[in-house]
């Protein structure tokens, strides 16, 4: 079973076992439809019993069996995964971050520029973190100006390398 990182427990909330959760997905319904959650080692995790949407990617969640703040605090930093089969299909021009990681980056002259090691979004849009052949790290906005083409089956991304940020 292929697991995809879905949630991160940020902190405890209140005294009744709720936790603040960061979701890596924009699909709110994904958590409401009984999607099974797993820990990194594929061990099944507790079921969600209550969920309250806060904003774009944040929730207050109560997991089965969590009765107090101490139990909730013990889960801080826990990352939770879902089976890939539960993810909605993407459109042709949409990609899951997990699929873009480890893609090789090429410029428009088909010269290798590096590999995607992470994708971040701090509110102004997604951007790639790229390990260059000289082992330096660069970033690149993930938008139509900088990303020319994504060949996901080949794990290849063609970019305008003049927009790399060192």
Describe the structure.
The structure is a single chain. By secondary structure, the chain is mainly beta. It has two domains: 3-86, RimM (Elongation Factor Tu (Ef-tu), domain 3, Beta Barrel); 97-163, SH3 type barrels (Roll), CATH 2.30.30. It is 8% helix and 42% strand. The strands form two sheets. It has a six-stranded mixed beta sheet, with no helix packed on it. A five-stranded antiparallel beta sheet has the order 3-4-2-1-5. Strand 3 and strand 4 (58-63) form a beta hairpin. The radius of gyration is 18 Å and the shape is elongated. The model has no long low-confidence stretch (mean pLDDT 91).
Provide a short characterization of the protein structure.
This protein is mainly beta and 166 residues long. The protein is built from three helices and eleven strands; from the N terminus they run E-E-H-E-E-H-E-H-E-E-E-E-E-E. The model has no long low-confidence stretch (mean pLDDT 91).
């Amino acid at each position: 079973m292929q697991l995809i990182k879905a949630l991160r427990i940020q902190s405890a909330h209140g005294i009744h076992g709720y936790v603040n959760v960061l979701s890596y997905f924009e699909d709110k319904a994904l958590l409401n439809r009984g999607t099974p959650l797993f820990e990194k080692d594929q061990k099944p995790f507790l079921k969600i019993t209550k969920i309250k949407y806060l904003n774009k990617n944040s929730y207050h969640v109560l997991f089965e069996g969590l009765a107090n703040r101490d139990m909730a605090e013990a889960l801080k930093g826990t990352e939770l995964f879902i089976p890939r089969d539960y993810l909605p299909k993407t459109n042709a021009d949409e990609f899951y971050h997990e699929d873009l990681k480890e893609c090789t980056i090429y410029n428009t002259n088909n010269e290798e520029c590096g590999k995607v090691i992470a994708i971040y979004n701090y509110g102004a849009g997604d951007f790639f973190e790229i390990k260059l052949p000289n082992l330096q790290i660069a970033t690149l906005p993930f938008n139509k100006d900088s990303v020319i083409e994504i060949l996901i089956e080949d794990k290849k991304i063609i970019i305008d390398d003049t927009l790399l940020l060192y």
